[in-house]
Amino acid sequence: MIVPAKLDGSESAIVWVKSVPENHCVIKVLIICGIYYQTKSKTKYLLIYHITTNYNSLKTKYNGANFIFAGDYNDLSPNIILQQSASLRQSVHYPTCFPGKTTIDLIVNDLHQWYQPPTPQSPLIPDPEREGCPSDHVVNIMFPKEDTNLNSSKIYNTVKVRPITKHAISAIGNMFGKHNWEEVLNEPEPDDKLSAYKNTIEIVLDSVAPMKEVKIAGDEPAWMNSGIKMILRKRDREYNKKGKSDRWRTL
Fold first, then answer.
1. Residues 184-225: pLDDT tens digits?
2. Distance (Å, whole) CA 65 – CA 29
3. Which of 66, 125, 127, 151 could be bridged to 134 by S-S, CB 3.0 to 4.6 A?
């Protein structure tokens, strides 16, 4: 693989490693991408293009390969990488750089079914015979779930959603169409009219499409939902079968 000269480390750097585990490991091929991105680097779009292009190329070349994109992202959003496949997740959800307490040392991967969420370890310190200062970045460590000495419980977040079906939309339309809105019209002040209007809307929505609590994996992007996952799975299957077909481009 040829890495563009502009990604030589002055502003951004990238390195690719292919690992083939032995002893009948469930992971047949592991592709590791090490990333360094300098804040507000001019190579941002070149770096993103290089990563996404080679991810799809390697995924086709090594069927069933797993991937890790780890490194110092600084202000580079991982969303473009996450959008390449529904199986990819960003697993680091704690501060990694001090004293600013920012989360910039990220691990985007598709190993969450076999590995526990990463844990922070002490920053690296210089070798005794060399001068230097300790790093201000923690070290992220991921352990296999088979390690019985560690807690392998998955982290979930509970969020409230309001599922609105086609039936609910029809029912809401019928209810609003028949409503006389007296509670709004009878209020003399604009602010009171607005409050009455909002209250009526909430009552109707709660009766037809009540709020529900759902659990989502703590390492999933905030925008991910079951509909997006289904579309991404369809896109991935189409790409694995026919590459960048017309159908793949529309998904």
1. 999 999 999 999 999 999 999 999 889 888 776 666 666 777
2. 5
3. 125
* CATH 3.60.10.10 location in the chain: 5-152
**Pairing of the two strands 30-37 and 66-72:** parallel
What is the DSSP annotation of 166-234? HHHHHHHHHHHHH---HHHHT-SSHHHHHHHHHHHHHHHHHHHS--EEEEEETTS-TT--HHHHHHHHH
Q: What is the CATH number of domain 5-152?
A: 3.60.10.10
The DSSP H or E segment spanning 233 is: helix 226-242
Residue 155 tokens read as 């982290």
Whether the pTM exceeds 0.85: the reply is no
Cα–Cα distance measured from residue 138 to residue 115, given in angstroms and rounded to the nearest whole number? 19
